[in-house]
Amino acid sequence: MKQVTSDDGVEIFYDVWGRRDGPPVLLIQGLGTDSRGWALQRMAFGRHYRCFAPDNRGVGHTGPTPRPYSLEQMANDALAVLDAEGVESAHIVGASMGGVVAQVIAVMHPERTRSLVLACTSCRHHPWRREVLQEWADAVQARGSAGLNDEALRWLVGPRLRRRFGVWLNILARILVRADPDGFAGQVRAILDAPDELRFELCNVRVPALVITGSQDALTPIGDAEELAEMIPYAQLVELRGAAHGLMVESPNGFNDTVLDFLDRVSGLDAGSDVQAASA
User: Fold this and answer.
1) Over the stretch 100-117, which tens digit does the pLDDT of each residue have?
2) Is domain 2-267 in CATH 3.40.50.1820, yes or no?
3) What CA–CA distances, in Å, run from 116 to 93, 100, 106, 166, 188?
């Protein structure tokens, strides 16, 4: 992995892959998940795009840092990655917590944003979700990340996949179990401290936007996605049937096809091109 120093002196680690001369895509993961959360997107996205995926502070190689965390600071971390790579603007793809970080970038740094993809995310707090997240943070700090899996997976993975208990469920569990307890709790605090007022600025986002959600997402239900699509002027909403909150792992083909169709269209790329990705 590569690394860059963010504006507050923290070393942020990030992964780079894909076509060297392709349009840049910045991918920001959610709570407790590092850049490996995009494992099932690497090959598909890398065929045409140059991809940059930071490990948010608190997870992965970046690891826990002095708290408190903030989503605005995580947005600055992600932009530091683009700066290190000499990228002036990029297509921003954010999942869950990363989707809120992507909203921060689009609102506060519109000149850095070519388009916006918001997956399994929201633009406001709900009391019940605040309680769930705080319970997760308390459980992780009390018992470590392994103690979170059974409870969290009921929220993150749909009942159809849980019944089948296939390989994707195991992948998601391994990602979650590696989350650092202090880093996880710091990210939860950042989410809970984020002001709801950001959503009132979404009307000023003037780039193409895709809001994508799973029909069985219990953590960020369809109503959250509908609100986002209504608040952002040039947004389209896509619902993946049968997928839940971990839709990029549960339904990777549907997720990849939908997002790449959108990116190809707004980038002016020929989706049928057979150009091979250059090795990173």
Assistant:
1) 999 999 999 999 999 999
2) yes
3) 6, 11, 7, 31, 23
